[in-house]
Amino acid sequence: MPEAKHEGASRPSPDALLEYARQEGRGRLKIFLGAAPGVGKTYEMLMSGRSRKADGIDVAIGVVETHGRKETEALVEGFEMIPRRVLDYRGQQLDEMDLDAILARKPRLVLVDELAHTNAPGSRHPKRYLDVLEILASGIDVFSTLNIQHVESLNDIVAQITRIRVRETVPDSVIDRADDIEIIDITPQDLIKRLHDGKVYLPTTARRAVENYFSPGNLTALRELALRRTAQRVDDQLLTHMQAHAIAGPWAAGERILVCLDHGRNGAALVRYARRQADRLRAPLTALHLETPGSANLGEADKDRLSAAMRLAEQLGAETVTLPASRVSREIIAYANANNFNHLIIGKSTKPRWRELLDGSITHDLIRYSGAISVHVMSGGSEEAVSPGVRTALPAKKLNPKHYIRASLFMTAAVAIGTLLDRALDVQNLALVFLMGVLASAIRGGLGPGLYASFIGALAFNFFFLEPRFTFTIRDPESVVALLSFLGTAVVASNLAASVQRQAIAARQRARTTEDLYLFSKKLAGTGTLDDVLWATAFQIASMLKVRVVILLPENDTLAVRAGYPPDDTLVDADIAAAKWTWEHNRPAGRAADTLPGAKRLYLPLRTGRGAIGVVGLDNDRQGPLLTPDQQRLFDALADQAALAIERIQLVADVDKAKLAAETDKLRTALLTSLSHDLKTPLSAVLGSASTLKDFGANLTDHSRDELLTTVIEESERLNRFIVNLLDMTRIGSGAMEPNFALHYVGDIVGTALKRAQKITADHKLKVAIPSEMPMIRSDPVLLEQALFNLIDNAAKYAPEGTTIEVLGWSDAKYVTLAVLDEGPGIPDADLERVFDTFYRVRKIDHVKAGTGLGLSISRGFIEAMGGRLTAGNRPAGEGAIFTIRMPIPAQLQIDGDMR
């Protein structure tokens, strides 16, 4: 045993050496990882870059987002900044990192902020991390930043914690390729203080962030995720280093627990104990089972216990590993040392003392040769596996006469060959010919044909080649020894050959099943809807187990058939009762089960760690029990994968529902705020003016009376516009928008909108340029006029009095474009899309009149309903915003224009 350990320690791991070889010639990646925005990742990255620059290393900035933070902008000074690439997207100019310029410049180190960023359409790669991988492949080192919520494997967990699903994610493989990960960590209280001080977001945005995302509980959970993910990567790096340098483990840098399982009765107790130890030590847990040559001869009860223990380990979050082995203790120690496990949990041996003296004790060997590994030996009592409550069918054992006919032919051929060689060989050597026939029979047909060939061969050898020949009498005592030796050798050889054949068949079957399970899991991972998952599950179970399948899920306080293969949604009363019992008790029922065995189908629960999530019904045309023990275990594997996929879909739906509920509450709050202000203000003005006219009308001058009446009219029109906007928003939200299309000249619609807006634009200058030769467009004039009116109203609100509002129009081969330009303060870059959100208002300056936050949202809804597009931007020269409407020219008019 020590020699084996020394051998394992003296030879580096090929996988670890390949990992080091892959790193040769490529750049090094360092990720500054944070729990949330604002912890100082970009700041720390720039400080590290400055340190490298001071050491004489060529450092350049590929892209850094300062977000207006003065201390970060100060650090950027002094670095060479590679100019960004400008892309045109929907009429907007977007800046992106110039990958080609970085590769051409080829600095020794490049700083790339926001690794999870999505590039603008037209870029070489859709994601920035793909740009970084190409930079690394060219031999350039990269410093980059990342928040923990952008890690792909943690996306669902982060969504559960924050109730916000992050769409921009980075695959875990990118993080695993990082050479260094530096965690940037501050306490939740310090981060919230930074938010309140305006060091992360603007004050209004910071207030909303603290209320929703940056709560102390959320930040604490995200902080723990970041620390654990970093620790996991460091642990992997330590393991790779030990394997590459053939360092004999374990190194107690961190706790790692390995539990060894076999077919014993205490398997479940071992797994639970190991899970408790792992939780106490906060250590990863692995469950190991070693397949020995004797594993193929295990009984069905032993196989069931082993399968249940491994399945329980997976449900409790352990990694499960199955390896072939001839010497169990040797393989366990080698695996533990190679993977840096420092705690080993095994069950107490139940073998009699005399068996341990003959076969040796695995427990004693592990303790003797464990070295620095702590060995936990657990008694576990004599725990019995819980009965599954389903009678299983016996595996079909068919007596195939072809194998015995083939064995007879092999023996006939041996007699013929022996007759030919009789004069040249001694009789003892002729026995080898018959032995070859026995081996061929056992390999092709198994143990039965092998034993049959052994006895037939012995009789034929005696009859044809032992003196006196052609009788079964044996005269020479040496011939008796030769015959018995041949028979014994033939029996042993046929048994060994049959064992090899069984193992080969089992290996092929296991490989085929593993491949099917892998393809099934891959298919489930690629499905995004519940119906697709259910159909794939029903088809896979039906094809692998050769049964008919129905899947039932809870729906409106009852069970409903959601999928089936072949398609079938009819259940008799007995089946409905069995399915309901299975759902309520989380145990099998129906055909061949202990409960309600009169049902047509066998119903089995689909369950995860959170409990039952559905029911599967199985049946076929045979009588009696439905599944063999192997099929039962295969069904368990399929059901576990399907249940996890269904739970994933349901969790996503739950998060989306929670997000929708939050958005609904947010919308309700905004609506109530808007109603309290935008309805109350004009109503108060109307009520005050009307009351004054009624009470003091006789004493008022004509001028005062006219002013009050004008106020009543203007505020009533304002109130009317608000109510119209609410009604329009309701139509858009309900999907009831049906434009009344016809061909119209946009100049006429612009004129009507400007006429409606005369009072609104009375204090502004108007500049209108709509060419008369512009082609007509297919539109609803009422909707287009309202959209234009809202844009003009918005421009009048934000542009100071006396400035110019422009309404311009032009056309090209495919589109007619209208633009409304003002000379106001413009729109912040971060709000260019948000201005179209319902009830969203850009932060106003003093002279800006209050608005409802509905007009721009309604305008976009109207324009998109007519097949057009509305975008916001800022004027290229000077202050002011520009809203652009692009409407397609009908195809026939395009053809006519081309002909002209």
Give a quick rundown of the structure.
The protein has 900 residues and is α/β, with parallel strands linked by helices. The protein is 51% helix and 16% strand. The protein contains 28 helices and 25 strands.
- Terminal CA distance: 93 Å
Q: Please bin the fraction of helical residues.
A: 40-55%
Low-confidence stretches: 1-10, 382-387
Alpha-carbon Rg, integer = 40 Å
* Sheet with the most strands: spatial strand order: 3-2-6-7-1-8
Largest sheet entry: 6 strands, parallel
Number of DSSP E strands: 25
Can you count the helices? 28
The dominant shape is elongated
Strand content: 15-25%
Helix/sheet category: alpha/beta
- Name the average pLDDT: 80
Description:
The protein is of the alpha/beta class and 900 residues long. Helix content is 51%, strand content 16%. It contains 28 helices and 25 strands. The strands form six sheets. It has a six-stranded parallel sheet, sandwiched between helices. Helix 1 runs parallel beside helix 14, helix 17 packs antiparallel against helix 18 and helix 24 crosses helix 27. The N terminus is likely disordered.
